[in-house]
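Task 17 of the worksheet. Students: predict the tertiary structure of the chain below and write it out as structure tokens. Keep your answer in the requested format; marks are given for formatting as well as content.
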Amino acid sequence: MRHVTRYRTYPSHPVEQRLFNGFVRCTFVRNWCLENNVYVDSCLPDLKNQYPELKEVQSHVLQKVIHRIVASLRALRAMKAKGRRVGKLRRKRIHSMEYDSTGFRLTGNRLWLSKIGEIQIELSRPVPGRIKQVVIKHTPAHRWFVAVVSETPDTPEPTTGTRAVGIDLNLENFSTDTDGMVFPHPHNVRKAAKRLRRAQRGLSKKVNGSRNRRKQRVKVARIHEQVENRRNDFLHKWSRYYVEHYDLIALEHLNIKPMVESLDAKLRGRSRVILDAAWYKGREFIRYKAANAGKYVHLIDPAYTTQDCFICGHREKKDLWQRTHCCPACGYTVPRDLNAAQNILKRASVGWGTPESTLVEIGTATPPILAVQVPVNDTRISRL
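Model answer:
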């Protein structure tokens, strides 16, 4: 099993300068390969003879730069084969270095990197298993982080439990499940909008190239980083809650791009809320946590999950402002999002081997569940 653990690191000023020089060398190699259409690492010996300053960077680091270019080109070709419009790789600056297999050593809270030196690292938790790879990165907020990739020989045991849940991701709240648990939307962007607006206004008034502008740019970047950290914290607690309490988790396979780019006036004003929710990232958090815990995740087609009645299957179109499902055929009345979550679980349970007719009978005998607001910091939701 592979683990990725991220730590904060505090390099000294000389080490920091060597790291920045390494980023410049890696950027040069990447852009040179793109300009000359050379995508094999066998070009590095001749390139080092032509530019001796490249010898200041560990050889495997430069090789990984070229390997990342090849991986990006393969991804673009795969997207193009599916009919999507793709561009080409452009010149850019590199702000990270990847040490693969060799060139690093972790001793206590000190990390040694070849051609760089020792760096103090804050080990907030021990590294599980054997270290296979180390990636050091500099963020726009002028902070340094080290991602340690390690492997352990253990494999998760598949679960034998039958606790199942269906989760509906919606605009009114963040999510609603079949047990009536409702997670409110954190609205991280909205809470930081005032501070971000002031910081960006101050940035626009600074002179280009001045020291004050560089300092103000870091302030803006730190606000964006804080929003991202709060979003990740919420998604980690949300995904951990479901992985710990359920064995079978059913989610919608949402396509976010059409929702954001929709010309519908009802959705146009909610694009920021949809992007701030980061449903795809939350889904991926649940998937990898479930894989590590031996649990199952089922992704289903979200079509008509809101319009279909869970009891009788009658399809009734609803506008976004209609938050209650009231079936005109059978009279089943529940919150709109709860009905969608029940349909999601019903569709997924058919794939797990439960006959759909049995599920309808169970749903008919089950009384309506009232959704309950649960704060994110509830004691039942453990923190990583």
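Marker's comment: The chain has two domains: 2-151, 164-188+229-373. Residues 2-151 form one domain.
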